[in-house]
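User: Mind token order:
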Amino acid sequence: MSPSDTLQNDAVLHLNALAGQLIDVIERENALVTSADRIGFLSLQARKAQISREYELTLKAVRATKVDLRLCDEDLRAQLKERHARLQELSIENISILTRAQGTVKRLQERILNAARQASKADDNPAYTRNGKSDPLEDTGTKPTSFSEAV
């Protein structure tokens, strides 16, 4: 095996390893989002970003050094193609799941805001001050004439 073959094989082995890690993270993320596990989802984000960044940098390095992947071991190259195809498939699924989850969160936010607006429109709700106490001005209908009366 020539040094050139070793370089191609090493590059493919590294890309395969990174692709496998990224596939694992995306599969876990999809499962966590589907099961509405927000804490689990958030805990994966740093790892996903790190692996994605390393995968991208490795691809750029392979291109920059003009490593000819066609010269690497056939089995390694086939494995890389399979993993790359799986990664693309999972990425599309991941985007779809995340988009649906984002829509769900937006609808929930809208419902909460609408409920808060409806509750604030009700006549029987007292006004509250910043410290969470009922505003005495609303209760008595009188306004203080000086700052000391207001406090």
Residues 123 and 138 are 12 Å apart (CA to CA).
